[in-house]
Amino acid sequence: MERHDIAIIGGGIAGLTLSKFLAEYGMDFVLLEEHDGFFKKACGEGITPYIFGYNFFDIYESNAGIERRLNITNIHTRYGDLKLYMPVLMTDKEKIEGELARQARKRGADIRMGEKVKNIRRDGDEFLIEPQGIIAKLLVGADGFFSMVRKLAGIKQPDYAVGVETLVENIDMNRDEVHIEYRNDVIKYGYSWFFPKKEKWNVGIGSFKPHHFKEYFDKFKERIKAERWRGANIPISKPLKSYAKGIMLVGDAASHIISSIGAGNITSMICAKIAADAINKISRNGFNGNDTRIYAEMLKPVVKMMKRDYNFAFVANRIIKSEYIRYRIMKKVVEVNSEYYRKMEERV
Question: Cβ distance 173 to 194 under 8 Å?
Fold first, then answer.
């Protein structure tokens, strides 16, 4: 049997960020990722650089994979366009995850690709991971929406939205803006997106009510001609309980997401950094399984803001049926958030 203090299940953006900072702390850990490559979950590939008082570049420490910076998101509604000032980094997410892995390995991280975990069971105060035959004192679930670690912890599965994306060559829209269609004739209880990357467009559509999705997606496919679409279940619950005895959850596994837009890249990275800081504290007490509550305490300020966003998203996308009222709410949100991001820019 192979023994480690910590085992991370999942090598997406959350698990890789956690690995980077655990390696920086000199922790004994292993990360197991079932795929042989990076960026396997459908994603719009946009990252908001400043949120919840955190700066993306402070965590990422690189420009690798950053293709463009856009400042305006044009929200197309039935009642007119709304211009949101909000910096967005358009990325090559495969390169972003690859760079995080490179940084982590440079610091000494043990990241193993192509290692599908089939079973995890408790063995006293430790965990046995099969078929790898790894024993760990602390288990971290960074294994996404269908997290087996979350299931082991007895924590419920989050509510979910459905989203699909593709890459296309040409879209007849302004390439210097992010575009969001927030219209019932495009999709109810959701939105479509058009994100201009360096050479192509990342285009997608999603719904907060999955049973409405197929009808609108079929129409969207007729409009956007693409050979290949990728889909994913996206958690949209309030952040879940993030710990159990000897277990911590991070990223989609814990619904660490901005529910109003279904975005989880930057929130996963923020929570992973907090998780690394918490594990550093837990290690001083010999990885006592009950100390995982420290993580929940340290997450509280960020969880509070994610819950606030969830409450807005729930009302706007699942309760209010009038498209005009949603437009009026969105107009106010755009005004408030544009002012917020301009002030953030002044501070950076």
Answer: yes
Q: Which two tokens stand for residue 236?
A: 């949209």
Q: Which fold has domain 2-347?
A: FAD/NAD(P)-binding domain (3.50.50)
Residues in the chain: 348
pLDDT digits (tens, 9 = 90+) for 232-250: 999 989 999 999 999 999 9
CA 293 from chain center: how many Å? 22
Query: What residues contact residue 205 under an 8 Å CB cut-off, 6+ apart?
Result: 163, 164, 186, 187, 190, 191, 192, 193, 216, 217, 220
The string of pLDDT tens digits covering residues 161-210 is: 899 999 999 999 999 999 999 999 999 888 999 999 999 999 999 998 88
Q: Answer positive or negative: Cα dihedral of 84, 231, 269, 13.
A: negative
| Integer-rounded Cα radius of gyration of the chain | 20
> 165 with 191: CB under 8 angstroms?
no
- Residue 51 sits at φ, ψ, to 5 deg, of -160, 145
d(CA 77, CA 91) in angstroms, rounded, equals: 26
Q: Tell me, rounded to whole angstroms, the distance of Cα 148 from its chain centroid.
A: 17
pTM over 0.90: yes
The segments of the chain whose pLDDT lies below 50 read none
CA distance 51 to 122: 37
Contact 89, 7 (CB under 8 A): no
- What's the confidence (pLDDT) of residue 314? 83
**pLDDT value of position 346:** 77
Per DSSP, the three-state class of 98 is: helix
